[in-house]
Amino acid sequence: MFERTNEASEIESISYQTLSGLSYWAGFVGVWTIIGAVLGIIGSIAGMVANPFSIFGVISAVIALIMGLKLRSSKKEFDSFVHSKASINLEIALDSLRHYFRILLVLNIVLFAVIALLLLLFLQSRKKTSFRSESIIHKVERISELSTARMTTLLIFEPERGSLVPGTVQRFIFIVPFQVRG
C-alpha cells in the first residue's frame, strides 16, 4: 500500500507543534484511561463478593488498561521521535495508535451489537404486552370440569366504564391481567 523510502524529508515536514500536541493528548487520555481502569479493576474485584457477574467488569477494565497503556506507549515514542528524529520511533508510536484504534473499533462494534439486541428485545416485549382498546382479555383458559349448567361469576374489565364489574360466563374462566396506562 505504501512504499518505504530512505528519504526523511516527508517525516521532517511534520511540524513539531502537531507531534507535541498529539503526544500530549495521547498521554493525557492514556493516564486517565489507566486511572479509570485501575479503579474499575479494584471495584469489580471487590464487587465479586456480592455479584459473581463482576467478572465482566474486570474484563472491560483490563481492556481499558491495555488501551491506556497503548496510548502511554505512543506518547513515549512520539516524544522520542521529536527529540531524536529517528523514524523507528514514529513507526512504533503510530503502530501503538493503530492498536488502540483497532481495540476501540472492536469495542464499538460489540457496543452497537448489544444495543441492537436490547432494542430488538425491547420491541419484542412491547409487541407481546400491547393490546387493542376494545379487548383487554389476554388469556382464556377452558376448564373442562365446569358443566354447562354451572355459572361462574367473575370480575370483568369494561373499557367503556373504566372499572371492574361483575359478569357471568359459562364454561370459561377469563383471566384478565390489565395495565393502567397514565
Distance between the termini: 61 Å
Structural class: alpha+beta
Largest β-sheet summary: 2 strands, antiparallel
Please mark out the parts with pLDDT under 50 across 5 or more consecutive residues, or reply none. 131-153, 168-176
Widest sheet: strand ordering = 1-4
The shape is elongated
Q: Return the average pLDDT rounded to an integer.
A: 76
Query: How many domains make up the coordinates?
Result: 2
Order of secondary-structure elements:
HHHHEEEE
Q: Level of helix content?
A: 55-70%
By DSSP, the count of extended strands is: 4
Pfam families: DUF5362 (PF17319)
Transmembrane segments: 22-42, 49-69, 100-123
Keywords: Membrane, Transmembrane, Transmembrane helix
InterPro entries: DUF5362
Verbal overview:
This protein has 182 residues and is of the alpha+beta class. The chain folds into two domains: 12-129, no CATH class; 139-175, no CATH class. Helix content is 60%, strand content 13%. The chain is built from four helices and four strands, in the order H-H-H-H-E-E-E-E. It has helices at residues 9-12, 16-47, 55-84, 87-129; strands spanning 139-142, 151-158, 163-170, 172-175. The strands form two sheets. The protein has a two-stranded antiparallel sheet. Strands 2-3 form a two-stranded antiparallel sheet. A hairpin with a 4-residue loop joins strand 2 and strand 3. Helix 3 packs antiparallel against helix 4 (87-129). The longest helix is centred in the middle third of the chain and has 43 residues, at 87-129. The chain is elongated, with a radius of gyration of 32 Å. Mean pLDDT is 76; it is low at 131-153 and 168-176.
